[in-house]
């Protein structure tokens, strides 16, 4: 008789069969990734990012502030808001997983007032979206996750250095060729909040979603061990 499939957790696939496939994917990654220097609390985040992208270069490109994972887990467990730069991240996040922790996701890049303000100030919508989040007090104690717009990440850094924002943790993963790598280095250099970055030009909304799902899984594990 075959062993029954494990009951999936909230932060896994919705069916036991789906969870089994996901676990096998993770096992394949563990076998093929080669050596890595990530401690046990960071590797699940990197592994899920590799799973989402099939890009083994994440092994090494993903770097963590020493307190990033613990800060993210604590924020998720208390239901801190996620502030994201684009709609793609918001719609990519699992509703059951968010509801489990009571997390609200905020993004303002398509807000008509944000668009108008960006045009008036001759800046990007991403910049004004982060300012809107700060004005509403949403950046305090939140999980900020940037996967598309380097200008959003640079604005978060500016707001932190000006004392106008204090997120719990910042995921800096914008993809691209103009200021993407530089914005991540600015976040690291600022060191005003714990951070997780993908160094260089690589990044993207898919990687942010993967990282957030991994962090929610770690938070659920922490809850179950209480």
Q: CATH homologous superfamily?
A: Cobalamin biosynthesis CobH/CbiC, precorrin-8X methylmutase
Can you tell me the CATH architecture? 3-Layer(aba) Sandwich
Question: What percent strand?
Answer: 5-15%
Supply the number of helical segments.
Answer: 11
Number of domains: 1
GO molecular function: precorrin-8X methylmutase activity
Pathway: Cofactor biosynthesis; adenosylcobalamin biosynthesis
Organism: Hydrogenophilus thermoluteolus
Keywords: Cobalamin biosynthesis, Isomerase
Topology of this protein?
Layout lengths: L15 H17 L10 H11 L4 H4 E3 L3 H10 L4 E3 L2 H6 L2 H7 L3 E2 L5 H10 L3 H11 L7 E4 L3 H12 L7 E4 L7 H11 L4 E4 L6 H20 L2
Question: How would you describe this protein?
Answer:
The protein has 226 residues and is of the alpha/beta class. Helices cover 53% and strands 9% of the residues. It is built from eleven helices and six strands. The protein has one domain: 3-Layer(aba) Sandwich (Rossmann fold), CATH 3.40.50. The radius of gyration is 17 Å and the shape is globular. Pathway: Cofactor biosynthesis; adenosylcobalamin biosynthesis.
